[in-house]
Amino acid sequence: MTIATNIAIEAVEANAHPHLQDQKPPFRWTRIPLHLILAFGAIVMALPFAWMVLSSFKPLSEIFLQPPKLLPMDWAPENYPTAWAGADFPRGYFNSFYIASIVVIVSILTSAMAAYAFARIRFRGNNALFMVFLATLMVPVQLTVIPLYIILGYIGWIDTHLALIVPAALFNAFGVFLLRQYVRGIPLELEEAAAIDGASRARTFFTIIIPLLRTPMVALGIFTFLAQWNSFFYPLIFLNTEEKFTIPLLVNQFKGAYSSDWTSLMVAATLAAAPLLIIFIIAQRQIVEGIALSGSKT
Amino acid sequence: MSAVVEEPKPKTGLAKPKFEPPPIRESAKKARRQDNMFAYLFLAPQLIGLVVFMLGPLIFAFVLSMSNWDGFGTRSFAGFSNFATILSDPQFRESAGNTVWYTVLSVPGTMISAFIVAYMLQKVRTKSLYRAFYFAPVVTSTVAVAAIWLWLFNPEISPLNNLLRNLGLPAPDWLQDARFVIPAFAIVGIWQGLGYQIVMMMAGLENVPKSLIEAADIDGASELQKMRRITIPLLSPTILFLSITSIIGSFQIFDYIYVFMGPSAPAASRTIVYEIFQRAFVEFNFGLGSAIAIILFLCLLALTGLQLMAQKRWVHYTE
Q1: Residue of chain B whose alpha carbon sits nearest to that of A62
Q2: Does some domain include residue A234?
Q3: pLDDT tens per residue, range A260-288
Q4: Interface test with A, best of B12, B37, B43 (most A CBs within 10 A)
Q5: Does A263 fall in a domain?
Q6: ipTM of the complex in this document
Q7: What CA–CA distances, in Å, run from A292 to B103, B195, B211, B242?
Q8: CATH of the domain at A171
Q9: Of A145, A268, A276, which has the smallest distance from its Cβ to B139's Cβ?
């Protein structure tokens, strides 16, 4: 697969990125009231975060101050080592990170494979099977969580990370659906060209389809990673031992154990929120567009 | 009689090498078989997942809902008694009512404010700066969000209540007062859910053709007329999508409540999913829990079906 494929790929890539010209409206003085409203809204949205971060630096004595103040009067950075010692945060980060990463990689690769088969191969039962995948999108997780708990208990996976990883990695109906839409949008000529050059189905998939699915796969990856990292319901049900806890479980447990220690709770919340907020600030555009893209194709 | 399914048929514009697929039926069959094999191979991982982690549990859920079982002892057939028990349970009825109340408060609240913000954002240049602020709660875990609001809802230390008092408004004990606990959840839900809807609506608004707005300008249409006659009809598919997904989402509210209240929350603050969790994983009554989950499922199906039926009246699709 050389000449024909390359020509075809270039043709497609030239069309794949029509310039998303960000036509900015010109600055007008009449827009100032608009800015005032938007800025007010933005501040309202940011205040809870500001409260969280600033309160995490307050000494305990300032909590009951009336009226409450946003800024600490005495800064107490020692709250951080205290809270850090109260729960195993490094392990929590590690657990959350590796679980989310494996789920993202495996579920997106297997979804792309399934999507390709559904979009391009006329095998027996293609449409019916795809409809089954689609229909499962309507099933709320709460309906399957009880049987899943029993089944996973039977296999012996309760209180192991496998209970969180395997089901999420091996079943991603939304991913299959989204990627199938995109595979259908790829011109058939590319695969035909590859076939002329003698490429097998598998080779076509990995060298032509996967690179062209980059955008939706990254979007789906962001979407899945966020959902996994922040997931609370499944970990709460499937995990019992503290060293297996993910970050959200750790914060929840912190809340129970230090119910009156408000500053430490804010430290825990800050520690839980910080990694994704930092990544979000760095890669705002990709994250927002990825999530918009995941939603808009539905 | 074309021989091979999905065999190359070069089209115009691409290199057209002289290529004839061998018209032998035997090889065609073989290629087709290979193709099928390949399809099943590629489908295998997700297919296994579908059967083991979705279809199996789904059937099992229906079986469980008709059983008496705590997961350890013997399972006995219960018929529809779990459904009868739960539907006549005053606690469940209250929880269902709370869920509906939460949905009524949070879904329109989120959608209307998201529309207003998105509509204003498309008119300014510093879109991405504002967007960052509105979107930040979306990437934050529900547990961290609940921890923050736990403080903001505590009447003794809340800066929010202090502000309300200064404005001469009632400053309730949000989470303990039965009248205010569901509105409190709705405030958090709106705060966290707003950014996603803004982004979706902005994507929808970008598809409104500039030429239509300009034509309306020439005709002297007011801002409100343009919004009502052009923007909202063209945005209606996005609005339908958001209303379906956000109603489903709000019926499944759980995380905030569990962090706020812990297990065994007071009656006024419980919702349907909280009941599922409570019955199945605190009381280990899998039958009752599954029955509630099936009721939830049927409610969501009905609500989505109703919206899809009603869409003909107000959703406009271009093309």
Answers
A1: B157
A2: yes
A3: 788 889 999 999 999 999 999 998 888 88
A4: B43
A5: yes
A6: 0.86
A7: 23, 11, 24, 12
A8: 1.10.3720.10
A9: A276
